[in-house]
């Protein structure tokens, strides 16, 4: 090796060891899984598309956000819980060779009001069969106690019967990330799916420290992407002086933020520590931005129409079912009516109580 090249190599090695000395060992390993930037850029597009209100365009994957890195996606089922204003889909990404499950964030009248409410959310539900684990009842039941769960679980099972034991990637933004977390845990623990991956964007906290240790034991491949000063990951608040009573994030946070000045600005994706509450990640800044919540990796993360739970739907173009409560399931599966039958019966028994 001649001298200049040798020097360059030495400088490079030096730089690498300085930069990665601590980061690589502590930061990039996620129970053996590595944070994958390419995958994050793909999943953020799936989490953005689920906000679209034209159900027909979403179901046929022809919506304006159904392009770019998600092209060729095959929707298996699209579920709209009209009663609770929730939306999710299940499908197969053939290029990733994975099942994708995506949850929409809140559609409430004002995102600001929804965020304000998060300041006061209590840990108000014991997570079933898990002593001391407490979670936020509203987030929990948005997944567990609505039309979403039965539709998603059977669509995931159907996709895996068709395509084999392929990974299930669960994603969502904001409240959709909270629901995605409960879904990933549910698929792992209650349905025995061993290769569930979770990646959420700007999600709030969902449970306490006891819940987090249970969660992390089961959902080992979990990434929570946070962006700059996004306020939502700071909520409901974390009180370090009440360790038993406070909400606590699960690992692994990846904090995306820009550094530099003037024209020399570049994006950093910091892979945070295994605690879930790394003080050197998004917690090192004040969460004071709503606009940082509404765009991740430059992708718009909000509804195309705000305000109401508006949906656009050309029912004659696709196969669909509507239950007694007016909830809609668009499905490519022949057996979809049986799922709806279950949820209709669940509704009846609720009314009886
Ligand atoms: C990251 O994800 C992409 C898309 O799934 C995949 O093609 C690539 O191999 C992954 N990279 C690593 C290092 O796992
Ligand atoms: C499920 O929803 C019904 C009605 O919406 C409610 O009465 C019931 O308490 C809920 N159950 C749980 C565990 O949240």
TrEMBL record:
Top-level lineage group: Eukaryota
A GO BP entry: lipid metabolic process
Domain Fungal lipase-type: 100-238
Keyword Cell membrane among UniProt keywords: no
Pfam families (alphabetical): Lipase_3 (PF01764)
Keywords for this protein: Signal
Signal peptide region: 1-21
Name used for this protein in its record: (wild Malaysian banana) hypothetical protein
Organism: Musa acuminata subsp. malaccensis
């Amino acid at each position: 090796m001649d001298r200049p090249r040798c020097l360059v190599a030495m400088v490079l090695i030096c730089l690498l060891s300085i930069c990665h000395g601590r980061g690589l060992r502590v930061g990039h390993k996620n129970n053996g899984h590595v944070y994958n930037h390419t995958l994050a850029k793909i999943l953020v597009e799936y989490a953005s598309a689920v906000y679209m209100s034209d159900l027909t365009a979403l179901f046929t994957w022809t919506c304006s956000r159904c392009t770019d890195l998600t092209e060729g996606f095959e929707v298996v089922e699209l579920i709209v819980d009209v009663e609770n204003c929730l939306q999710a889909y299940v499908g197969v990404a053939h290029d990733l060779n994975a099942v994708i499950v995506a949850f929409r964030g809140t559609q409430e009248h004002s995102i600001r009001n929804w965020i304000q409410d998060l300041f006061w959310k209590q840990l108000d539900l014991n997570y079933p069969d898990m002593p001391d684990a407490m979670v936020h009842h509203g987030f929990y039941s948005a997944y567990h106690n609505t039309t979403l769960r039965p539709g998603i679980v059977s669509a995931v099972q159907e996709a895996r019967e068709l395509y084999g034991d392929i990974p299930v990637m669960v994603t969502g933004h904001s409240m959709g990330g909270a629901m995605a977390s409960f879904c990933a845990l549910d698929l792992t623990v209650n349905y025995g799916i061993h290769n569930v991956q979770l990646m959420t964007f700007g999600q709030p906290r969902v449970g306490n420290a006891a819940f987090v240790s249970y969660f992390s034991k089961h959902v080992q491949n979990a990434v929570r992407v946070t962006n700059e000063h996004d306020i939502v990951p700071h909520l409901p608040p974390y009180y370090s002086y009440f360790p038993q009573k406070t909400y606590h994030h699960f690992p692994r946070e990846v904090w995306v933020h820009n550094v530099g000045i003037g024209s020399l600005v570049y994006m950093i994706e910091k892979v945070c520590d295994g605690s879930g509450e790394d003080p050197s990640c998004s917690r090192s800044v004040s969460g004071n931005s709503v606009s940082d919540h509404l765009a991740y990796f430059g992708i718009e993360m909000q509804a195309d129409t705000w305000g109401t739970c508006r949906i656009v739907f050309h029912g004659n173009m696709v196969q669909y079912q509507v239950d007694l409560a007016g909830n809609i399931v668009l499905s490519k599966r022949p057996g979809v009516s049986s799922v709806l039958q279950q949820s209709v019966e669940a509704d009846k028994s609720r009314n009886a109580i």
